[in-house]
Amino acid sequence: MERIELDFPAARSTQGRALAGVVASGDLEVLLEASATARTRVQVTTSVDGMGHLWRAVLDRVLGDGAHPAVTLEINDFGATPGVVQMRILQAFEALEHAHG
C-alpha cells in the first residue's frame, strides 16, 4: 500500500460531498468534500506501490488547470487505469454539481 498526497489550485468554493465508484478489483472510489481553502487537496491510497509519478501526471491532467471547485479528494485505489481515475473524479464533481447546482 502506498499513500500519496498532492495539492492543486482551485477556482472557487462549493458546498457538499459526493462519492463515485467502489473499491473493488481494478477500480477505485473517490470521496469528495468541499474545502474552505482555495486549494484542492488529494489523498491517494493505492494497492500499487511506486506509481506516484503516474498519479501526479494523471491528476495534473484532471486538476492542474485549477478550474474546478476547492475540495478535498480521498481516492482509494485497487489498481484502476488512468482512464478510470479521470472518469471517477469527473463523476464525483458532476454529482456534487447536481446535488448543489
TrEMBL record:
Pfam families: ACP. The modification O-(phosphoribosyl dephospho-coenzyme A)serine is found at residue 25. Its main location: cytoplasm. It is found in: Cytoplasm. The keyword Cytoplasm applies. InterPro entries: Mal_deCO2ase/Cit_lyase_ACP (IPR023439), Malonate_deCO2ase_dsu (IPR009662). Keywords: Cytoplasm, Phosphoprotein. One of its GO terms (cellular component) is cytoplasm. Covalently binds the prosthetic group of malonate decarboxylase. This is Malonate decarboxylase acyl carrier protein.
